[in-house]
Write a structure and sequence with these properties.
InterPro entries: F-box-like_dom_sf, F-box_AtFBL13-like, F-box_dom, F-box_dom-containing, FBD, LRR_dom_sf, LRR_FXL15/At3g58940/PEG3-like. The protein is an alpha/beta fold. It has 12 helices and 22 strands.
């Protein structure tokens, strides 16, 4: 009986509840100006933006005039990337044809400006029409990756070279026309090249270029950089392939501030920094360097000797010293000659921040001469060095001798951050502090900090984020 009475009570309470309120008043969002609604719609995926056309007559044609952000591979229902290893087994997959048709339909229906466009599902011979239409509609960000990127490259149309709205351009396996006008890409700020030949005369024609990212797996002629406006250069190679350009030459870059190199670049590519008077950030320089010229200092490895030896010469070309560099990153390889480290550091007399990445794993420390650091005396950069970060710290002899040298002689040192590759214990910390002679530190403000190393530790993210963006 009690359950029956409680059921009747709940029914009476339900009947007494007020009916759900119905929306009343005007549709305030629809009353916003078109320019604001266009901005809102431009943030949607194009598929969702197009669906708003069924809301009412007010929304029927709004998305057609909103700034368009279109990525042809975003229609993939299975989240399969065009770069998956198994991708080419699905060349005839229906979603490819559906995605291509969807892009064509959107271009036919949409008549507003194009903010950004990525084409990666179309063959080279199919891309011209889309690119020319994008130029006519004021494209700002363009990413071109021919679907058959291992075959015929896509030749850029002349109309793209004169596009004055383009701010960011990313190209993979594309070629520039043979004859270029005196000036191209008048307002281009960022250029990304992947497997694209970079002619010496190309960069000086880009009057507004500030950032250049080069990714290559092609062995070829030297890459020479001459640009009056370039501020940041990132150079990386395909780590799965052993080929790379023979040389990377910073020939004339009066405004270059950052030169970011993938960790293994200097192992296979000869680096020459000849003229970059404003360069502030440089790395990685690998201790297993093939050959590197920093200003007038030329360091070359002689592979025929065992262990490999390095010859240091002074050339008549280039800046005397790279005194503008404040931040330097070095990659120490397992079996490399550690004598290259002080040779490299001597080229940067005003260095303030030193970031060191160690080889992965513990083992043979390579060719280390005991007492090597004590023989160096007091190098110029020690009067300016403020921070040191070591990623992959094991506490072996190589680590200890280097840090002891910096601690005892670094007058301005503020922080040494050690990202440890092993478990940190109080005993480990006490032993390393004693070996490094922290009590004899030259700077009374020096702090020694231990962290457990992770793949993307925030304390080393400066170089990770700039290379793998």
């Amino acid at each position: 009986m009690s359950s029956l009475s409680s059921l009747k009570k709940r029914k009476r309470e339900t009947k007494s509840l007020p009916a759900p309120s119905q929306p009343d008043g005007p549709d305030l969002i629809s009353q916003l100006p078109d320019c604001i609604l266009h901005s809102i719609l431009s943030l949607f995926h194009v598929r969702d933006a197009a669906r708003t056309s069924v809301l009412s007559s007010r929304w029927r044609h709004l998305w057609e005039a909103a700034p368009l952000r279109l990525f042809d591979d975003s229609f993939n229902p299975n989240n399969r990337s065009p770069y998956d290893d198994c991708y080419y087994h699905f060349v005839s997959d229906p979603w490819l044809d559906w995605s291509r048709n969807a892009v064509s339909s959107i271009f036919d229906s949409h008549h507003g400006p194009i903010e950004s466009l990525r084409l990666s599902l179309f063959f080279s011979f199919q891309m011209d029409g889309f690119v020319k239409t994008a130029v006519q509609r004021g494209i700002r960000e363009l990413n071109l990756v021919p679907f058959n990127f291992d075959r015929d490259p896509y030749k850029l149309p002349l109309s793209l070279l004169f596009c004055n709205t383009l701010h960011q351009l990313s190209l993979q396996n594309c070629t520039f026309p043979q004859a270029l006008p005196p000036s191209i890409f008048p307002n281009l700020r960022e250029l990304r090249l992947n497997c694209v030949s970079l002619a010496d005369y190309l960069l000086p024609k880009c009057a507004s270029l500030e950032t250049l990212l080069i990714s290559t797996s092609v062995e070829g002629p030297p890459v020479s950089i001459s640009s009056p406006t370039l501020r940041k250069l990132v150079f990386e190679r395909d780590i799965d392939l052993v080929s790379s350009p023979a040389e990377l030459i910073i020939k004339d870059a009066p405004n270059l501030e950052s030169l970011i190199l993938e960790e293994e670049v200097t192992c296979r590519t000869k680096l020459k920094v000849l003229d970059a008077p404003k360069l502030q950030r440089l790395g990685f320089i690998n201790t297993d360097v093939r050959a590197i010229q920093l200003g007038r200092t030329l360091i070359e490895q002689h592979q025929e000797s065992s262990p490999p030896t390095f010859v240091v010469n002074v050339t008549p070309y280039g800046m005397n010293l790279l005194s503008s560099v404040k931040t330097l990153a070095i990659k120490i390889e397992l079996f490399s000659d550690k004598k290259t480290i002080p040779i490299i550091l001597k080229c940067f007399p005003c260095l303030e921040n030193l970031d060191i990445m160690k080889y992965e794993g513990n083992g043979d420390e390579g060719y280390l001469n005991e007492g090597m650091w004590e023989e160096q005396g007091s190098l110029s950069f020690l009067d300016h060095l403020k921070t040191v970060t070591v990623k992959g710290f094991w506490g072996d002899q190589c680590d200890v001798e280097l840090l002891r040298y910096l601690v005892v002689r670094g007058n301005m040192l503020q922080t040494i951050t050690l990202l440890c590759s092993k478990q940190i214990t109080e005993k480990f910390v006490d032993i390393k502090k004693r070996q490094i002679c922290i009590e004899n530190r030259a700077s009374s403000n020096l702090a020694l900090v231990f962290f457990r190393d992770t793949k993307r530790n925030a304390h080393f993210s400066l170089w990770n984020d700039m290379i793998h963006r």
